[in-house]
Design a protein that fits this description.
alpha/beta; Rossmann fold; 6-stranded mixed β-sheet; 10 strands; 41% helix; globular; L-serine ammonia-lyase activity; Ser/Thr_Dehydratase; TrpB-like_PALP; pyridoxal phosphate
Length: 313
């Protein structure tokens, strides 16, 4: 797998700008002086993933079906992009996937297959379908997906630096995309933010290769898991990320409550880690801190539990 080419980035920008409205940029002075929130949580399907999905679906061969494995935001994004671009998509999810995500995928219009007891087994089936003639779209280890995520930079280009962008990190597709945009801007500092329960990308950057790490339970479930061997996100992030940090479960919950109370925003755990990092001064900010709020797809009982946690009031 190789990094996106300049032509792939240009093609991604064309399809994204023709299909999506730029997500809002909101001042958040209570978070930090001169702080901003980039509300990717307001994208269709509720997360930034739709950027990469649009780019990858648009570049897939027209005579092949599209397949992916996901029980979350990536699957929803691929299904949405395929419908908009008149393509056929199959999303494979494990039988243990949450009913909320499964129901959303059922409504999306994709072909939904329930296979296996975990993500790895679902992905294995999806890759078998790809070998039979479908185009497989990885959630992060795909140059067109990364090119799509880089389009967020076009919506930040008007901001005068210096700025420090706080990027939620799981497999690294989004932070790799931000790095592509920031590579020519010396006034932009890029901070990758992981859940303390799952630090796959930071471990890979430190080791110079993908290594397996312990993965614990986390409210930021969309960031949890080990990386694919040879993931191109490691190389891209290694060249441009200025700092990798982690936030705890308590800090993630605090960030979700802050976004709800201060801005009336719903955020899932994965989408709130950047805010958590700013709140708790996990990294060195140069200029204005800008936190990417990347998703809102949190189960209502989970959200109610976080908001109603009396011990945190």
């Amino acid at each position: 797998m190789s990094a996106p080419t300049a032509s792939a980035v240009d093609a991604a920008l064309a399809v994204v700008t023709n299909t999506l409205v730029a997500s809002p940029l909101m001042p958040s002075p209570r978070l930090a002086p001169d702080a901003f929130l980039k509300l990717e949580s307001l994208q269709p399907t509720g997360s930034f993933k739709v950027r990469g999905a649009l780019a990858a679906v648009a570049m897939a061969e027209r005579n092949r079906g599209i397949v992916t494995a996901s029980a979350g935001n990536h699957g929803l994004a691929v299904a949405w992009a395929a419908e908009r671009l008149d393509r056929h998509a199959t999303v494979v999810i494990p039988r243990t996937a949450s009913s909320a995500k499964a129901n959303a995928l059922e409504r999306s219009g994709c072909k939904l297959e329930h296979v296996g007891e975990n993500y790895e087994e679902a992905e294995e089936h999806a890759l078998t379908l790809a070998a039979e003639g479908h185009s497989y779209i990885s959630a992060y280890n795909d140059p067109n997906v990364i090119a799509g995520q880089s389009t967020i930079g076009a919506e930040l280009a008007h901001i005068d630096g210096p700025i420090t962008v706080y990027v939620p990190v799981g497999g690294g597709g989004l932070v790799a995309g931000v790095c592509l945009w920031a590579q020519d801007r010396s006034d932009v500092r890029v901070v990758g933010v992981e859940s303390a329960a799952s630090r796959g990308l930071s471990a890979a950057i430190e080791a110079g290769r993908v290594v397996n790490v312990p993965v614990g339970r986390t409210l930021a479930d969309g960031l949890a898991g080990n990386l694919e061997a040879g993931s191109v996100t490691v190389e891209i992030a290694s060249r441009r990320v200025d700092e990798m940090v982690a936030v705890t479960e308590e800090e993630i919950e605090e960030a979700i409550r802050f976004l709800a109370a201060e801005h009336g925003l719903v955020a899932e755990g994965s989408g709130a880690v950047g805010v958590a990092a700013v709140m708790n001064r996990r990294a060195t900010s140069v200029g204005s801190p800008l936190a990417l709020v990347t998703g809102r797809n949190i189960a209502l009982p989970t959200l109610a539990g976080v908001l109603g946690d009396a011990s945190a009031q």
